[in-house]
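User: Fold this; C-alpha coordinates only.

Assistant: Input:
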Amino acid sequence: MPSVVMKFGGSSVVDASAIRRVIRIVAAERDRGRVPIVVVSALGGVTDRLLALAEEARLGHEAEVESGTADLRRRHSAEAAPLGADQDASLIPAIESQFAHLHSLFQAIEDCRAAEPRALDAIAASGELLSSRLVAAAMAAAGLPAVWVDARDVILTDDRHTSAAPLVTEIAAATHARLDPLLTAGSIAVMGGFIGRAPDGSTTTLGRGGSDYSAALVGAGIGADEIQIWTDVDGMLTADPRIVNDAEVVPHLSFAEAAELAYFGAKVLHPSTIFPAVSRNIPVRILNSHRPEAKGTLITADPPRTQRSFAALACKRGITILDITSTRMLMAHGFLRKVFEVFETYETAVDVVTTSEVSVSVTIDDNRRGADIVAALLQFADVTVEEQMALLAVVGDRLTTHSALAARVVGALTAFPLRMVSQAASRRNVTIVLPEASLAPAMVHLHRELFAVSGQTR
Protein backbone atom coordinates (compact mmCIF):
# COMPACT_ATOMS: atom_id res chain seq x y z
CA MET A 1 0.00 0.00 0.00
CA PRO A 2 1.34 3.53 -0.76
CA SER A 3 2.90 5.20 2.25
CA VAL A 4 3.76 8.76 3.22
CA VAL A 5 5.98 10.01 6.03
CA MET A 6 4.50 13.08 7.73
CA LYS A 7 6.76 15.04 10.07
CA PHE A 8 5.24 17.65 12.40
CA GLY A 9 7.48 20.15 14.15
CA GLY A 10 7.14 21.58 17.63
CA SER A 11 4.92 24.47 16.53
CA SER A 12 2.54 21.93 14.98
CA VAL A 13 2.15 20.01 18.26
CA VAL A 14 2.45 22.86 20.74
CA ASP A 15 -0.85 22.13 22.51
CA ALA A 16 -4.12 20.19 22.31
CA SER A 17 -5.60 22.50 19.68
CA ALA A 18 -2.56 22.08 17.44
CA ILE A 19 -2.59 18.30 17.91
CA ARG A 20 -6.24 18.22 16.84
CA ARG A 21 -5.19 19.92 13.58
CA VAL A 22 -2.50 17.28 13.12
CA ILE A 23 -5.07 14.53 13.61
CA ARG A 24 -7.33 16.06 10.95
CA ILE A 25 -4.42 16.37 8.52
CA VAL A 26 -3.33 12.77 9.07
CA ALA A 27 -6.90 11.50 8.74
CA ALA A 28 -7.32 13.37 5.46
CA GLU A 29 -4.11 11.85 4.10
CA ARG A 30 -5.30 8.38 5.08
CA ASP A 31 -8.63 9.03 3.35
CA ARG A 32 -6.66 9.71 0.16
CA GLY A 33 -5.48 6.12 0.21
CA ARG A 34 -1.97 6.37 1.66
CA VAL A 35 -0.85 4.94 4.99
CA PRO A 36 0.84 7.68 7.04
CA ILE A 37 3.89 7.25 9.21
CA VAL A 38 3.88 10.19 11.62
CA VAL A 39 7.08 11.66 13.06
CA VAL A 40 6.66 14.36 15.71
CA SER A 41 8.95 16.76 17.49
CA ALA A 42 8.64 17.54 21.19
CA LEU A 43 5.82 19.87 22.18
CA GLY A 44 6.85 23.42 21.29
CA GLY A 45 9.57 24.73 23.61
CA VAL A 46 10.03 21.50 25.58
CA THR A 47 13.50 20.53 24.32
CA ASP A 48 14.90 23.98 25.13
CA ARG A 49 13.34 23.77 28.59
CA LEU A 50 14.77 20.30 29.24
CA LEU A 51 18.29 21.38 28.33
CA ALA A 52 17.92 24.53 30.43
CA LEU A 53 16.96 22.35 33.40
CA ALA A 54 20.03 20.19 32.79
CA GLU A 55 22.13 23.33 33.13
CA GLU A 56 20.26 24.28 36.32
CA ALA A 57 21.06 20.81 37.65
CA ARG A 58 24.73 21.24 36.79
CA LEU A 59 24.75 24.47 38.78
CA GLY A 60 23.13 22.72 41.74
CA HIS A 61 19.84 24.64 41.55
CA GLU A 62 17.71 21.81 42.92
CA ALA A 63 14.56 23.86 43.55
CA GLU A 64 14.52 25.24 40.00
CA VAL A 65 14.94 21.74 38.57
CA GLU A 66 12.12 20.34 40.70
CA SER A 67 9.78 23.21 39.80
CA GLY A 68 10.60 23.07 36.08
CA THR A 69 10.18 19.31 35.91
CA ALA A 70 6.82 19.52 37.70
CA ASP A 71 5.65 22.17 35.21
CA LEU A 72 6.55 19.94 32.27
CA ARG A 73 4.79 16.95 33.84
CA ARG A 74 1.62 19.01 34.39
CA ARG A 75 1.77 20.34 30.83
CA HIS A 76 1.86 16.90 29.22
CA SER A 77 -0.84 15.51 31.51
CA ALA A 78 -3.03 18.57 30.96
CA GLU A 79 -2.83 18.31 27.16
CA ALA A 80 -3.85 14.65 27.30
CA ALA A 81 -7.28 15.19 28.87
CA PRO A 82 -8.99 17.41 26.25
CA LEU A 83 -7.70 15.10 23.52
CA GLY A 84 -9.16 12.04 25.17
CA ALA A 85 -5.65 10.60 25.20
CA ASP A 86 -5.96 9.74 28.88
CA GLN A 87 -8.41 7.01 27.81
CA ASP A 88 -5.29 5.04 26.91
CA ALA A 89 -4.54 3.25 30.15
CA SER A 90 -0.82 3.10 29.33
CA LEU A 91 -0.30 6.83 28.64
CA ILE A 92 -0.25 8.38 32.13
CA PRO A 93 1.97 5.60 33.56
CA ALA A 94 4.32 6.11 30.60
CA ILE A 95 4.46 9.85 31.28
CA GLU A 96 5.13 9.24 34.97
CA SER A 97 7.84 6.71 34.15
CA GLN A 98 9.56 9.14 31.77
CA PHE A 99 9.58 11.88 34.40
CA ALA A 100 10.91 9.47 37.01
CA HIS A 101 13.77 8.74 34.62
CA LEU A 102 14.30 12.47 34.11
CA HIS A 103 14.44 12.98 37.85
CA SER A 104 17.21 10.39 38.18
CA LEU A 105 19.16 11.98 35.32
CA PHE A 106 18.92 15.47 36.84
CA GLN A 107 19.88 14.09 40.25
CA ALA A 108 23.00 12.47 38.82
CA ILE A 109 24.01 15.76 37.18
CA GLU A 110 23.44 17.64 40.46
CA ASP A 111 25.55 15.11 42.36
CA CYS A 112 28.58 15.35 40.07
CA ARG A 113 28.08 18.95 38.87
CA ALA A 114 28.63 17.84 35.28
CA ALA A 115 26.38 17.02 32.33
CA GLU A 116 27.95 14.47 30.04
CA PRO A 117 26.77 14.28 26.39
CA ARG A 118 25.26 10.84 27.03
CA ALA A 119 23.08 12.26 29.82
CA LEU A 120 22.12 15.30 27.75
CA ASP A 121 20.90 13.03 24.96
CA ALA A 122 18.76 11.03 27.36
CA ILE A 123 17.28 14.25 28.76
CA ALA A 124 16.64 15.89 25.37
CA ALA A 125 15.07 12.70 23.99
CA SER A 126 12.38 12.82 26.69
CA GLY A 127 10.51 15.52 24.79
CA GLU A 128 10.01 13.37 21.69
CA LEU A 129 9.26 10.23 23.68
CA LEU A 130 6.52 12.09 25.58
CA SER A 131 5.01 13.90 22.59
CA SER A 132 4.91 10.83 20.36
CA ARG A 133 3.12 8.80 23.04
CA LEU A 134 0.66 11.65 23.57
CA VAL A 135 -0.06 12.10 19.85
CA ALA A 136 -0.47 8.35 19.29
CA ALA A 137 -2.95 8.11 22.15
CA ALA A 138 -4.84 11.19 20.90
CA MET A 139 -5.11 9.71 17.39
CA ALA A 140 -6.41 6.44 18.78
CA ALA A 141 -8.98 8.33 20.85
CA ALA A 142 -10.09 10.08 17.65
CA GLY A 143 -10.70 6.71 15.99
CA LEU A 144 -7.52 6.38 13.94
CA PRO A 145 -5.58 3.06 14.03
CA ALA A 146 -2.49 4.67 15.57
CA VAL A 147 0.35 2.67 17.14
CA TRP A 148 3.20 4.21 19.12
CA VAL A 149 6.65 3.16 17.93
CA ASP A 150 9.81 3.80 19.93
CA ALA A 151 11.97 5.73 17.45
CA ARG A 152 15.07 4.19 19.03
CA ASP A 153 14.02 0.83 17.57
CA VAL A 154 14.18 2.36 14.08
CA ILE A 155 16.81 5.12 14.01
CA LEU A 156 20.08 3.32 14.75
CA THR A 157 23.19 5.47 15.06
CA ASP A 158 26.81 5.57 16.09
CA ASP A 159 27.72 6.64 19.63
CA ARG A 160 28.59 10.30 19.04
CA HIS A 161 26.20 11.69 21.60
CA THR A 162 24.40 15.00 20.85
CA SER A 163 25.29 14.73 17.13
CA ALA A 164 25.05 11.05 16.26
CA ALA A 165 25.43 9.83 12.69
CA PRO A 166 22.75 7.45 11.39
CA LEU A 167 23.68 3.91 10.35
CA VAL A 168 21.79 3.89 7.08
CA THR A 169 21.99 0.17 6.28
CA GLU A 170 20.86 -0.78 9.79
CA ILE A 171 18.04 1.77 9.67
CA ALA A 172 16.75 0.31 6.40
CA ALA A 173 16.59 -3.15 7.97
CA ALA A 174 14.98 -1.81 11.15
CA THR A 175 12.31 0.18 9.30
CA HIS A 176 11.25 -2.87 7.33
CA ALA A 177 11.22 -5.09 10.42
CA ARG A 178 9.33 -2.65 12.63
CA LEU A 179 7.14 -0.69 10.21
CA ASP A 180 6.27 -3.03 7.34
CA PRO A 181 3.83 -5.09 9.48
CA LEU A 182 2.07 -1.89 10.55
CA LEU A 183 1.84 -0.60 6.98
CA THR A 184 0.45 -3.94 5.81
CA ALA A 185 -2.20 -3.76 8.53
CA GLY A 186 -3.06 -0.18 7.61
CA SER A 187 -1.95 1.10 11.01
CA ILE A 188 -0.51 4.57 11.53
CA ALA A 189 2.93 4.41 13.16
CA VAL A 190 3.63 7.41 15.41
CA MET A 191 7.19 8.03 16.53
CA GLY A 192 9.40 10.80 17.83
CA GLY A 193 11.97 12.50 15.65
CA PHE A 194 15.52 13.55 16.50
CA ILE A 195 16.33 10.51 18.65
CA GLY A 196 18.04 7.19 18.06
CA ARG A 197 19.95 4.35 19.70
CA ALA A 198 23.68 3.67 19.73
CA PRO A 199 25.12 0.14 19.39
CA ASP A 200 25.51 -0.06 23.19
CA GLY A 201 21.79 0.63 23.66
CA SER A 202 22.16 4.21 24.90
CA THR A 203 19.87 6.97 23.64
CA THR A 204 21.35 9.35 21.07
CA THR A 205 20.16 12.45 19.23
CA LEU A 206 20.82 13.61 15.67
CA GLY A 207 21.43 17.22 16.71
CA ARG A 208 18.97 20.08 17.02
CA GLY A 209 16.42 20.16 14.24
CA GLY A 210 17.04 16.48 13.54
CA SER A 211 13.36 15.50 13.40
CA ASP A 212 13.32 16.39 9.69
CA TYR A 213 16.32 14.11 9.26
CA SER A 214 14.55 11.29 11.12
CA ALA A 215 11.56 11.57 8.81
CA ALA A 216 13.78 11.45 5.72
CA LEU A 217 15.69 8.43 7.03
CA VAL A 218 12.44 6.58 7.71
CA GLY A 219 11.07 7.57 4.31
CA ALA A 220 14.18 6.31 2.55
CA GLY A 221 14.24 3.16 4.66
CA ILE A 222 10.73 2.07 3.70
CA GLY A 223 10.75 3.60 0.21
CA ALA A 224 7.88 6.00 0.94
CA ASP A 225 5.99 7.66 -1.90
CA GLU A 226 6.50 11.08 -0.32
CA ILE A 227 8.06 12.78 2.68
CA GLN A 228 6.07 15.70 4.10
CA ILE A 229 7.58 18.30 6.43
CA TRP A 230 4.77 20.14 8.22
CA THR A 231 5.79 23.43 9.80
CA ASP A 232 4.32 26.89 10.50
CA VAL A 233 5.04 28.58 7.14
CA ASP A 234 3.56 27.93 3.70
CA GLY A 235 6.74 26.41 2.25
CA MET A 236 10.25 27.43 1.28
CA LEU A 237 10.23 31.18 0.74
CA THR A 238 12.25 33.41 -1.55
CA ALA A 239 13.88 34.99 1.54
CA ASP A 240 13.73 34.97 5.33
CA PRO A 241 10.28 36.46 6.08
CA ARG A 242 11.60 37.98 9.30
CA ILE A 243 13.79 40.21 7.12
CA VAL A 244 11.90 40.49 3.82
CA ASN A 245 8.20 41.06 4.42
CA ASP A 246 7.16 40.36 0.82
CA ALA A 247 8.97 37.03 0.47
CA GLU A 248 6.89 34.51 -1.46
CA VAL A 249 6.57 30.74 -1.56
CA VAL A 250 8.74 28.89 -4.08
CA PRO A 251 6.37 26.29 -5.61
CA HIS A 252 9.09 23.89 -6.83
CA LEU A 253 12.74 23.31 -6.01
CA SER A 254 15.29 20.78 -7.15
CA PHE A 255 16.94 18.57 -4.55
CA ALA A 256 20.18 20.45 -5.15
CA GLU A 257 18.59 23.88 -4.67
CA ALA A 258 16.85 22.80 -1.48
CA ALA A 259 20.04 21.32 -0.07
CA GLU A 260 21.95 24.55 -0.75
CA LEU A 261 19.24 26.70 0.83
CA ALA A 262 19.03 24.50 3.92
CA TYR A 263 22.80 24.47 4.36
CA PHE A 264 23.06 28.22 4.00
CA GLY A 265 20.47 28.99 6.64
CA ALA A 266 16.90 28.43 5.41
CA LYS A 267 15.27 27.37 8.69
CA VAL A 268 12.30 25.55 7.17
CA LEU A 269 14.36 22.46 6.35
CA HIS A 270 17.16 20.68 8.22
CA PRO A 271 20.29 20.55 6.00
CA SER A 272 20.54 16.75 6.17
CA THR A 273 16.92 16.08 5.17
CA ILE A 274 17.43 16.06 1.43
CA PHE A 275 20.16 13.43 1.18
CA PRO A 276 18.13 10.34 2.21
CA ALA A 277 15.35 11.51 -0.14
CA VAL A 278 17.81 11.94 -3.00
CA SER A 279 19.15 8.43 -2.47
CA ARG A 280 15.70 6.98 -3.19
CA ASN A 281 14.36 9.81 -5.40
CA ILE A 282 11.49 10.46 -2.97
CA PRO A 283 9.68 13.80 -3.34
CA VAL A 284 9.77 16.08 -0.29
CA ARG A 285 6.90 18.48 0.32
CA ILE A 286 7.01 21.39 2.79
CA LEU A 287 3.57 22.30 4.14
CA ASN A 288 1.92 24.53 6.74
CA SER A 289 0.00 22.70 9.48
CA HIS A 290 -1.85 25.95 10.28
CA ARG A 291 -2.94 26.29 6.62
CA PRO A 292 -3.13 22.74 5.25
CA GLU A 293 -4.94 23.97 2.17
CA ALA A 294 -1.81 25.85 1.01
CA LYS A 295 0.09 24.01 -1.74
CA GLY A 296 3.50 24.40 -0.12
CA THR A 297 6.83 23.68 -1.81
CA LEU A 298 7.52 20.46 -3.69
CA ILE A 299 11.15 19.30 -3.90
CA THR A 300 12.04 16.79 -6.60
CA ALA A 301 14.98 15.74 -8.72
CA ASP A 302 13.63 17.48 -11.84
CA PRO A 303 11.19 20.32 -11.04
CA PRO A 304 9.19 21.88 -13.87
CA ARG A 305 11.16 24.37 -15.91
CA THR A 306 10.33 27.99 -15.19
CA GLN A 307 11.58 31.39 -16.29
CA ARG A 308 12.96 32.21 -12.86
CA SER A 309 16.66 32.98 -12.76
CA PHE A 310 17.04 32.36 -9.04
CA ALA A 311 15.31 30.09 -6.55
CA ALA A 312 15.70 31.97 -3.27
CA LEU A 313 17.99 33.74 -0.81
CA ALA A 314 19.22 32.31 2.48
CA CYS A 315 21.32 33.71 5.28
CA LYS A 316 23.29 32.86 8.40
CA ARG A 317 24.25 35.14 11.24
CA GLY A 318 27.01 34.60 13.78
CA ILE A 319 29.69 33.96 11.17
CA THR A 320 33.40 34.27 12.00
CA ILE A 321 36.07 34.93 9.35
CA LEU A 322 39.62 33.67 9.84
CA ASP A 323 42.29 35.18 7.57
CA ILE A 324 45.29 32.83 7.57
CA THR A 325 48.57 34.17 6.18
CA SER A 326 52.00 32.65 5.82
CA THR A 327 54.31 34.17 3.22
CA ARG A 328 56.78 31.39 3.85
CA MET A 329 54.35 28.50 3.38
CA LEU A 330 51.40 29.77 1.36
CA MET A 331 52.52 28.39 -1.98
CA ALA A 332 54.38 25.48 -0.42
CA HIS A 333 53.14 21.94 -0.84
CA GLY A 334 50.94 20.86 2.07
CA PHE A 335 50.01 24.29 3.44
CA LEU A 336 46.29 24.00 2.78
CA ARG A 337 46.33 20.45 4.11
CA LYS A 338 47.80 21.72 7.39
CA VAL A 339 45.15 24.45 7.58
CA PHE A 340 42.21 22.13 7.12
CA GLU A 341 43.65 19.45 9.39
CA VAL A 342 43.26 21.99 12.20
CA PHE A 343 39.54 22.36 11.51
CA GLU A 344 39.20 18.59 11.29
CA THR A 345 40.99 18.13 14.61
CA TYR A 346 38.54 20.47 16.32
CA GLU A 347 35.50 19.08 14.45
CA THR A 348 34.51 22.45 13.04
CA ALA A 349 32.97 22.76 9.59
CA VAL A 350 34.07 25.47 7.15
CA ASP A 351 31.39 27.23 5.10
CA VAL A 352 33.23 29.48 2.64
CA VAL A 353 36.84 29.48 1.44
CA THR A 354 38.62 32.11 -0.66
CA THR A 355 42.31 32.49 -1.44
CA SER A 356 44.54 35.35 -2.53
CA GLU A 357 48.27 35.65 -3.20
CA VAL A 358 49.06 36.07 0.46
CA SER A 359 46.22 34.55 2.48
CA VAL A 360 43.49 31.98 2.83
CA SER A 361 40.17 33.18 4.27
CA VAL A 362 37.60 30.79 5.72
CA THR A 363 34.30 31.21 7.54
CA ILE A 364 32.84 29.13 10.35
CA ASP A 365 29.42 29.35 11.97
CA ASP A 366 30.36 27.38 15.10
CA ASN A 367 32.94 29.27 17.13
CA ARG A 368 32.92 27.08 20.23
CA ARG A 369 36.44 25.82 19.45
CA GLY A 370 37.55 29.10 17.88
CA ALA A 371 40.28 29.85 20.42
CA ASP A 372 41.77 26.36 20.03
CA ILE A 373 41.67 26.64 16.23
CA VAL A 374 43.42 30.01 16.23
CA ALA A 375 46.09 28.74 18.65
CA ALA A 376 46.80 25.75 16.41
CA LEU A 377 46.95 27.88 13.25
CA LEU A 378 49.35 30.33 14.92
CA GLN A 379 51.90 27.52 15.10
CA PHE A 380 52.58 27.95 11.38
CA ALA A 381 50.73 31.10 10.19
CA ASP A 382 49.47 34.53 11.13
CA VAL A 383 45.75 34.69 11.87
CA THR A 384 43.28 37.58 11.87
CA VAL A 385 39.78 37.00 13.26
CA GLU A 386 36.64 38.95 12.33
CA GLU A 387 33.46 38.19 14.25
CA GLN A 388 29.85 39.37 13.97
CA MET A 389 29.76 38.65 10.27
CA ALA A 390 26.91 37.16 8.21
CA LEU A 391 26.54 34.99 5.16
CA LEU A 392 24.07 35.79 2.37
CA ALA A 393 23.57 33.15 -0.33
CA VAL A 394 21.72 33.35 -3.65
CA VAL A 395 20.70 29.91 -4.90
CA GLY A 396 19.40 28.72 -8.24
CA ASP A 397 20.05 25.93 -10.73
CA ARG A 398 20.29 28.43 -13.61
CA LEU A 399 23.48 29.84 -12.08
CA THR A 400 25.19 26.71 -13.40
CA THR A 401 24.55 27.66 -17.02
CA HIS A 402 24.18 31.45 -17.04
CA SER A 403 27.46 33.00 -15.92
CA ALA A 404 26.13 36.55 -16.13
CA LEU A 405 23.74 35.87 -13.24
CA ALA A 406 26.57 35.73 -10.68
CA ALA A 407 27.85 39.10 -11.87
CA ARG A 408 24.34 40.45 -11.53
CA VAL A 409 24.17 39.36 -7.89
CA VAL A 410 27.47 40.99 -6.96
CA GLY A 411 26.66 44.09 -8.98
CA ALA A 412 23.43 44.58 -7.07
CA LEU A 413 25.39 44.83 -3.80
CA THR A 414 28.01 47.42 -4.71
CA ALA A 415 26.70 49.79 -2.03
CA PHE A 416 27.35 47.24 0.74
CA PRO A 417 30.65 46.33 2.45
CA LEU A 418 31.28 42.87 0.98
CA ARG A 419 34.00 40.98 2.81
CA MET A 420 34.11 37.74 0.79
CA VAL A 421 32.48 36.51 -2.44
CA SER A 422 32.45 32.85 -3.45
CA GLN A 423 30.86 30.58 -6.02
CA ALA A 424 31.27 26.86 -5.49
CA ALA A 425 32.31 24.43 -8.23
CA SER A 426 28.67 23.38 -8.61
CA ARG A 427 27.97 27.04 -9.52
CA ARG A 428 24.54 26.68 -7.95
CA ASN A 429 25.01 29.46 -5.44
CA VAL A 430 26.74 32.79 -5.00
CA THR A 431 27.79 33.36 -1.42
CA ILE A 432 28.48 36.77 0.07
CA VAL A 433 30.04 37.44 3.48
CA LEU A 434 29.43 40.87 4.98
CA PRO A 435 29.09 42.49 8.42
CA GLU A 436 26.08 41.23 10.33
CA ALA A 437 24.80 44.80 10.71
CA SER A 438 24.51 45.02 6.91
CA LEU A 439 22.70 41.71 6.41
CA ALA A 440 19.07 42.87 6.67
CA PRO A 441 19.32 45.91 4.35
CA ALA A 442 21.44 43.89 1.89
CA MET A 443 18.92 41.03 1.78
CA VAL A 444 15.97 43.40 1.35
CA HIS A 445 17.76 45.25 -1.46
CA LEU A 446 18.90 42.07 -3.20
CA HIS A 447 15.45 40.51 -3.01
CA ARG A 448 13.94 43.63 -4.55
CA GLU A 449 16.54 43.58 -7.33
CA LEU A 450 16.26 39.89 -8.17
CA PHE A 451 12.56 39.20 -7.61
CA ALA A 452 9.73 41.18 -9.19
CA VAL A 453 6.66 42.17 -7.21
CA SER A 454 4.66 39.51 -8.99
CA GLY A 455 6.89 36.83 -7.53
CA GLN A 456 8.45 35.99 -10.89
CA THR A 457 12.22 36.30 -10.95
CA ARG A 458 13.48 38.89 -13.36
